[in-house]
Amino acid sequence: MINKRLLIKNLLAHNDENSFYDKKRKVDITHKEGKAKFLKHICALSNSNPKNNSYIVIGVEDEDNTIIGVHFFDDSKIQNLINAYLSNPPIVQYENIPFPHLPEDKVVGLVTIRANNQITSLRKNIWKYYGGTVFLRDGSISMPKVFDIKINDVNSQLVEAIESHSQNNIEHTLNGVFDFMNMRKDYNPQYKVFKEYFVLCWSGQKKTVKNEVLFSRVDIELINEQVRLFFSTFDEVSISYNDNSFKIVEYVNLGLQNQNTYYELEETLIHFNDNAHYTIETKLLFVPPQFDKKILHHIYNSNNALLEKLKKGLNLNNNEMKDLKNLPATYLICYLNLFNDAINRLNEAKPYLKSHSLEVYKSYQEATRILRKIKYS
User: Which residue of 5, 50, 264, 314 shows the fewest CB atoms closer than 10 Å?
Assistant: First the structure.
């Protein structure tokens, strides 16, 4: 089993990006340009490495390989995005890899691309790229190719060597468990060994909501691979497990006028097999809550007026400050109730919310995360 933290270090040892590896400071797929550029790199790396894995490391300075990290990204539906826009799509996996020196809310993103030994191309237009375009890696650059494409296998031995040097061992596993237990000692850290092989650590603040036990400030890591499976300082989740599996049900707290309810968002089931392999299955559970349209029209118009004041840099009174904290969630509720333009207003608000305060911006990130899960399901 590959230790993903070691794998990232070994990839970064190849100082320059090449035809099987790319590095990014950050990736943003919440808008068309970001999606298009991400799809371009996936397409190019898949075509340049038909018989072995390719990788994108996210959260690294380009000039000196300094690991700065990015926020935890739990987009389990990223394969749906790939399938929607690429012909002959590769298998793509996004994983969050914690590093000891990073803040608790930061990780390094690792994208693994497994090609299907066929030429991958854009299925349809996106941003300034046309449907049918084929991309290949030209050194460290993903370039469109308009001539006959020949797939060459030149990296298999090198990639196999890097992956071989990144294998896990008992020292790495024990150190990972000790690091987790020490870092999370204020949040009731626990661990369990599955199938005498897999070590899973988790922690969280326990509370009871309507006779159901939920956890907040949850952190869940698969120690063998140094992969963070779940992390949130806001969300509530339920946790259950047996000797063969570990299940997480994620909830979101939504409502209007201080009348909030917990709604099931997504179920993640990690199943451990006897052959030293595991599978992760996700299932969307969310049913959008429906509210009175007259109330929603009032809230939607109030949000728009508040956004205009924010854009003009006007001072907000105490009540408006409270409404601003709820603006992302109420725009989300409006969108879920067929106020289709609410998503555009929410995206328009992003830079102003980000510059206003970290707390408000985190509310924006939470709203867009829920939207992303729903959209690609």
Answer: 314
Give the span between the Cα atoms of 222 and 207, in whole angstroms: 24
Residues 6+ apart with CB under 8 A from 364: 328, 346, 349, 350, 353, 354
CB 119 within 8 A of CB 82: no
**Between the CA of residue 320 and those of 112, 305, 312, 314, what are the distances in Å?**
44, 10, 15, 11
Q: What is the three-class DSSP state of 304?
A: helix
3-class SS of residue 314: coil
Task: Quote the CA–CA distance of 370 and 373 in Å, as a whole number.
Answer: 5
Residue 166 DSSP class: T
Question: How many residues does this entry show for the chain?
Answer: 377
User: CB of 346 within 8 A of CB of 333?
Assistant: no
- Rounded to whole angstroms, the Cα distance separating 377 from 364 reads 20
DSSP element (H, E) containing 94: strand 91-97
Pairing of strands 106-114, 53-58: antiparallel
Beta strands at 21-24 and 53-58: parallel, antiparallel or unpaired = parallel
- How does pLDDT run across 337-373, given as a tens digit for each residue? 999 999 999 999 999 999 998 889 988 988 988 888 8
Strands 141-145 and 21-24: unpaired
Task: Classify the phi-psi angles of 281: left when phi > 0, otherwise alpha if psi is within -120 to 50, otherwise beta.
Answer: beta
